[in-house]
């Protein structure tokens, strides 16, 4: 589940727009012009080839990628004179590059910084006494690209002392058209500071290491980068390479350390540039419309359920996730046919509240229903399938403030937004006006209310606009069922009165609450104390709300769930699956999460799985709940993979302490893990990678925040257990 899905995405030229001159025929994502000047030295010229090979990692050439054009004279000889350079710039039509293509200009050659503080491209025929006649001003080459028609431009100057050209570039910005400065994204990178020679093989190593970082630990969830992100990657790459150099008794001088390229224009550094493709971007196909994606199952989750239910990725089996828990799904779908009202899905931790709501939202999404891959999911009881478009908007309250939730709901529903800077009451009023106004019926799903920031305040603020809207629009019904005192209600206009009937509103809520009758469970079984009586607060506001509990008599559903997860697995006969279902349901204490984690371990043991059911040690770990299952998994990982159980636990616990939607890999996850472990973590990227490829990845889920892939525990119950990991289990011994 932790692996990225999909293919690398490149931005294509706009359809119908002619491609720039001299580019290869066919569809291209941009153009790269390489101006390189060999000097006859074997090492220097070999380094040029290494640089071009490294550039291809970032700007791959070929059909559907970047069209490359490398410098040479018409007779195939390398550039040697000022005239050669000027002729190449004219032949390449660099200045005429159109707005439809991102443009990269790469210059790698010797350079020099003159007595007049001007930087020049130095050629084999350049005379130091006649720079104006025999050398080429570097700024002029850069502005051939910067003042082209391309809207996204990146210039890389890999030349001796190339950073010294920065002041010239800034002074010449005044010559750019103001509209271009406002609309284009123009970046220049200098690789060598004043007094440093051109970077040869070192630049190639930097680009390769930065590529390794962006395709592993950085995980920027965007198809293109900002210049600030690219230079940070180069900086981190330089630090990584520097750390690998042999240690000396005396620290290296700055001039002896690996040089870090720097941006020479900063105006556009925080804008996404189409000239900077992100080779680490792996998009997931959308399986729901934007307004439903917050609660709907993600592509990754759907693939997980397809695999777990059938033991293979197979279109012939949609999985228990879609076909199980028939009675509960039937009641939810029936609610969507009601004209108006509130339904609350409540239950204790791990009993599948979010799974029920996620299925409902996902199956109502047109994108999901139109996808042939998931057609088998519809082979279930017809009256448990919601109509396409039955859910209008869906929101997860997890780690959201009331203000953030109101802004998202108004956007998803298409409400007129209040003026910028308006307080929360204005957003409430805007939502209430929309819900009580005329229009099509709407169904809104809000899940994980107990995981919101300040849940009580969230409920009071965000649910308030729904109080009048979810009541019957029949005035007689309003008289027989009075509203709470704090909820104003104006009956909707009746047909035939000259006014439009108010829209009908259905509200579906998901909240954790204690089970009505909690069975006896051993200490540490993973039960979580309730966060206040949120269910009571909700029913105070919606006294007519129907409550659907996910934890009423769950054992039969858990047994069916376990059988589905083991279906098709080697060494699991029907009798063995029935035994596993009965054993796990007896020890899972009503938690589907516990059952899923237990089956994951049975599957991981393969041929030993059926025997594991008779292991008293394993059954005891299952009885303890998540903590026991996790402890046994940590020990197994340490024995078989060599990853320290203490370090693996520290990495998992770090995700539980992350704020927001999760922890980004990069430098954040290792630093947080060191704080949790209270000791250094050697080779953290390697250990995180091993963790994510191990069965422990099933304890994590991924999300996106600030354009980064982030990781968090797969369930809030698991997060709470990790945060308060029992003292006697901290060492996992």
Q: How would you describe the overall organization of this protein?
A:
- This protein is α/β, with parallel strands linked by helices.
- It is built from 29 helices and 18 strands.
- Strands 1, 2, 3, 4, 5, 6, 7 and 9 form an eight-stranded mixed sheet that branches. The protein has a five-stranded parallel sheet with strand order 12-13-14-11-15, sandwiched between helices. It has a three-stranded antiparallel sheet with strand order 16-18-17.
- Mean pLDDT is 83; it is low at 1-26, 309-318, 475-499, 517-532 and 728-733.
* Poorly predicted tracts of residues: 1-26, 309-318, 475-499, 517-532, 728-733
**Roughly how many Å is the radius of gyration?**
31 Å
Overall pLDDT level: 83
For the largest beta-sheet, the strand count, sense and barrel status come to:
8 strands, mixed
Shape: globular
Based on secondary structure, the structural category is alpha/beta
Gap between N and C termini: 28 Å
Count of helix runs = 29
The overall strand count is 18
Helix content: 25-40%
């Amino acid at each position: 589940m932790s692996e990225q899905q999909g293919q690398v995405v490149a931005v294509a030229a706009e359809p119908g727009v002619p491609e720039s001159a001299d580019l290869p025929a066919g569809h291209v994502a941009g153009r790269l012009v390489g101006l390189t000047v060999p000097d006859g030295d074997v090492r220097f010229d070999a380094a040029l080839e290494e640089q071009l090979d490294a550039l291809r990692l970032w700007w791959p050439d070929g059909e559907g990628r970047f069209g490359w054009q490398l410098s040479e004279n018409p007779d195939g000889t390398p550039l040697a004179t000022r005239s050669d350079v000027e002729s190449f710039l004219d032949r390449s039509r660099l200045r005429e590059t159109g707005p439809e293509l991102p443009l990269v200009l790469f210059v790698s050659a010797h350079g020099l910084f003159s007595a007049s503080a001007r930087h020049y491209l130095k050629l084999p025929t350049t005379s130091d006494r006649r720079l104006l006649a025999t050398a080429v001003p570097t700024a002029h080459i850069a502005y051939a690209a910067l003042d082209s028609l391309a809207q996204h431009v990146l210039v890389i100057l890999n030349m001796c002392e190339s950073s010294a050209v920065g002041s010239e570039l800034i002074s010449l910005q005044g010559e750019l058209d103001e509209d271009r400065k406002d609309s284009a994204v123009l970046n220049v990178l200098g690789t060598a500071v004043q007094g440093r020679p051109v970077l040869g093989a070192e630049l190639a190593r930097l680009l390769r290491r930065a590529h390794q970082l962006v395709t592993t630990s950085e995980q920027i969830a965007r198809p293109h980068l900002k210049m600030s992100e690219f230079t940070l990657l180069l900086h981190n790459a330089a630090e990584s390479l520097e750390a690998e150099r042999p240690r000396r008794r005396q620290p290296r001088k700055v001039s002896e350390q690996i040089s870090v390229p720097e941006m020479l224009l900063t105006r556009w550094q925080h804008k996404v540039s189409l000239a900077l493709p992100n080779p680490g971007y792996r998009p997931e196909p959308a399986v729901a419309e934007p307004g439903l994606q917050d609660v709907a199952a993600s592509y990754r989750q759907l693939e997980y359920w397809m695999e777990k239910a059938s033991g293979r990725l197979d279109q012939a089996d949609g999985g228990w996730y879609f076909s199980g828990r028939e009675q509960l799904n039937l009641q939810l779908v029936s609610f969507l046919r009601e004209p108006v009202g509130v339904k609350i899905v409540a239950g204790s931790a791990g009993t599948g509240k979010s799974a029920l709501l996620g299925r409902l939202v996902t199956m109502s999404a047109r994108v999901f229903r139109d996808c042939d891959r998931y057609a088998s999911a519809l082979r279930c009881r017809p009256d448990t399938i919601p109509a396409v478009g039955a859910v209008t908007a869906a929101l997860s309250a997890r780690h959201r403030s009331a203000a953030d939730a109101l802004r998202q709901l108004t956007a998803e529903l298409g409400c007129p937004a209040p003026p910028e800077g308006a307080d929360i009451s204005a957003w409430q009023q805007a939502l209430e006006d929309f819900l009580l106004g005329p229009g099509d019926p709407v169904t809104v799903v809000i899940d994980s209310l107990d995981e919101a920031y300040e849940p009580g305040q969230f409920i009071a603020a965000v649910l308030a606009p729904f109080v009048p809207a979810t009541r019957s629009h029949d005035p007689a019904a309003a008289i027989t069922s009075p509203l709470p005192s704090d909820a104003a209600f104006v009956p909707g206009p009746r047909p035939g009165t000259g006014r439009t009937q108010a829209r009908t509103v259905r509200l579906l809520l998901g909240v954790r609450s204690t089970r009505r009758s909690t069975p006896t469970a051993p200490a540490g079984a993973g039960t979580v104390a309730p966060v206040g009586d949120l269910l009571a607060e909700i029913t105070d506001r919606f006294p007519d709300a129907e409550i659907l509990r996910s934890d009423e008599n769950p054992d039969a559903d858990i047994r069916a769930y376990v059988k589905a997860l083991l279906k098709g697995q080697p060494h699991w006969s029907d009798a063995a699956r029935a035994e596993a279902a009965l054993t796990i349901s007896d020890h899972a204490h009503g938690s589907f999460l516990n059952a899923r984690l237990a089956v994951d371990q049975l599957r991981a043991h393969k041929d030993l799985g059926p025997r594991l059911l008779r292991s008293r040690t394993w059954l005891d770990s299952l009885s303890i709940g998540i903590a026991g299952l996790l402890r046994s998994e940590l020990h197994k990982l340490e024995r078989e993979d060599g990853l320290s159980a203490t370090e693996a636990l520290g990495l998992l616990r770090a995700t539980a302490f992350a704020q927001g939607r999760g922890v980004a890999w990069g430098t954040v996850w290792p630093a947080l893990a060191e704080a949790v472990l209270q000791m250094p973590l050697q080779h953290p990227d390697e250990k995180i990678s091993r963790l994510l490829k191990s069965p422990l990845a099933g304890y994590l889920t991924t999300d996106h925040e600030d354009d980064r892939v982030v990781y968090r525990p797969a369930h809030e119950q698991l997060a709470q257990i990790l945060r308060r990991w029992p003292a006697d289990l901290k060492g996992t011994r």
